[in-house]
Every structure is written in structure tokens, then in C-alpha cells.
Amino acid sequence: MIPPRPIGEADLQAHIDGRLDPTRLAEVEAYLAGHPAEAARIAGYADQRAKLRAALAGYADEPIPAQLNLASLIEARRAPHYPSWRAAAAAVLLLGLGGLGGWSLPHAPAGGIAALAQEAADSYAAYAPDHIRPVELRAADRGELVNWVSQRLDRPVAVPDLAGSGYRFMGGRLVPTPHGPAALFLYDDDKGTRLALLVRPMEIDRDMPLAAQSHGAVSGYAWSDQGLGYSLVAPASARDLPALANEARRQTES
Amino acid sequence: MKDMMLLIEPLIPALRRYARALLRDRTAADDLLQDCLERAITRWHQRRADGDARTWLFTILHNLAISRLRQTARRGAPVGLDEADESVTAQPPTQEDALYHRDVLRALETLPEDQRGVLLLVSVEDLSYAETARVLDIPIGTVMSRLSRAREKLSRALAPATDAQAQRPTLWRVK
Fold first, then answer.
1. What is the pLDDT at residue B85?
2. Which residue in B12, B74, B88 is closest to A58 by CB distance?
3. Among residues B81, B112, B142, which one ends one of the domains?
4. How far is CA A19 from the centre of its chain?
5. Does the residue B134 lie in any domain?
6. What pLDDT digit, counting tens, does each position of A45-65 carry?
7. Regions of chain A with pLDDT less than 50
8. A60 in contact with B at a CB cutoff of 8 Å?
């Protein structure tokens, strides 16, 4: 007769989880019968397993919150681009911009690079002229800012260093957009000219080359790289904006 | 769409339990699961046709949970603590059960995250050792050794409480 394979710790663990085939189960039980200390240890683990399951059972019994309603989540993903109110808002926006001669967004799909540029211009208009609190976290708290926005955007976000081009990093904040939170970084130069860089994840236009997106009082360049979109905006009077945008893009390329 | 509903929806309670047990924070766990479900929906077509939906979903969820735990650790913020008695069970547990549940969950928190994941997937979510190895992307031998270490550590963490409970039951009730 072939002697049974020696009993290992993995066999004992599998005994606790009820994952032994009948032959091996008999061998393990025979072993435990002859080794009371091991049998007590394994019985303790089995008891612990039952207690752990009981302690966590309540979590699976709670009613599922609306946030996790699968049908709604699927529906939201199925028609992400033109829900009716958003299409209407986009139409109004396009008409308004056409009338004002502002940013031109002909046939721009919602959420794409042109929308990103518009969001950057809006954030610039709100925060760049602010002399009381343009940023929520200052340059000194750069690490905290980077952690915060990286967590909210669910991916690592880096702050480009434009000091070599004469623009100091001032700090930044999280800003809302119709396509989720975005990181806004502000820079300024010795004359007080401010630049803003808006960064957010892109559902569409995920990899787009650098392109001028603007005319009028505010100039902008936007691009995207591996699903992260960037738009750098500045007053139209700011010089070297294309070079600054190139530099920022070079630093953020992964 | 229909197969997505049929295959994913029944798994939501278990996925929720796993996220909650790993993160120990109801809001964070539900946000994490929402993120997981959204990813599953957008990547449904990339799922291997022969693959098991449950293992696939646990893999997505586990990876999101780990990156969240690491971010939280980097930010230095403590992970929010759920109290065990907050988990209302279908049959209300007796007070002693509730106390024991709280002790078990606290002991669970003392495990390193890699051991906690293995223990929960195997002992609570009933994944096979091979499925657990796939979710965690580690060899089965590593699953077995982590499982053994997790059980040993958990029982050491629980031992003093159990002794105290056995020796001084009245004190526990008065508290």
C-alpha cells in the first residue's frame, strides 16, 4: 500500500474552508485525530472563520443605495454625450459664443478638447482676477495639492514647472466642470500676468495634439495625453504662450 | 446590457461587503464600488468571454481599493472607522454578538492589507484558492501562506479579548 502524502499546512487550511476532496479529507481528519494540539488550532480557525462571516453578513444585507443602482449606472454610461438638457445648454452656449465672437466651438462634441478649453477659460475668468484668494492651496502646499487632486481625478496629476519661462507656480484648487472635477493650477510672472492650467480626465479626445483653441481677450492651448486633458490659458497679451504650452506638455507627457 | 444586469447585479451585495471590509468606511466603500461598476460597464466588452464575471469584478474592485488605501496612507489621513454595531443585521444580534463582531472587525484591521484581502476573499466571499490567486495576481502558494499567516495573526489579536470575555463576563455586560 502506498503511504498517504504527508499532511501540510495548506491541507489544514483547506480543511477549514471545506475545500478538500473526500479522500484527502479522510486523511486530514485521521491526522487531526492523532494530533490534538493541531486539531485545536484548526478548530479555533474554523470558529474564527464563522465569526468573521457573521460579523460581515450585515454589510451584504443592507439595501443597495441609489448610487449603486446598476440600471441607472448603465443608462448614464450609454448616453453620456447628449442628454437633452445638456444638449440644450450646449446649443445656448454655442449661440451665445457665436454672438460674442468668443471661443469658437463648431460641432464640438460635449466633453471633448473644445469643451475643456471652454472650462479652462471659465475657471480663468473666475479665479485669475481674484486678488484675495486665487488659489485654495498655495505653492508651499504643493504636495498636499497634488495628492488631493490626484485622488479626486483618480490618477496621478503633476504640476508643470514653468519657472524657467518666468512663471512662478502660485498654487491651485479643484474646480467643477460638466465632466467632473478638474484641477486648476495658477502661475504668475513678475508683472502679475497670470496663467491657468486646467487638467481633467477625458472621455473622448483622449490623445490630442497641442492646438490653439481661442481668440478674443483670452488665449488658450489645449491638448490631451493618455486620457488626461490639459488647457493652458492666459490673457491674449501674454507673450510666448505657445512655448509655455509646449513646455507644460513636455513635462506632463508620460 | 441584459447579460450585464444578469451577471453583475446579483454580485453587488458581496462586492459591497468586500469593499466595506477592506476600507472600513461605508461612504468610501460605496464610492469605490460605484467607480468599480462604472469601469465594469465601460469595459464589459473587453472582458474575456470565458472569464468569470465574479472574479473579474473582484479584481477591478480590489485594485481600486488598494490604490485608495495607499493614497489614504500617503495623505496621512486615518481610514474612517465603522463601528461594528452600525452594521444592522437582518436578525438583530445579541449584545454579546455585537461586541464579538466589533472585536473581530477590529482584529481584522490589524492585518496587513495583503493578508486581509486573501482572508476575506477565501473565508467570507467563498472564492476558490485559484480565483483568489487570479484576483490578487499572485501564485496559489502565496495565497495559502498569506491565508495561514492571516488566520494565525487574527487569532492572536482576538485571544486576549476572548480570555477577558470568558473570565469576566459581567464586566462585558455592564459596559
1. 40
2. B88
3. B81
4. 40
5. yes
6. 999 999 999 999 988 888 999
7. 80-83, 98-107
8. yes
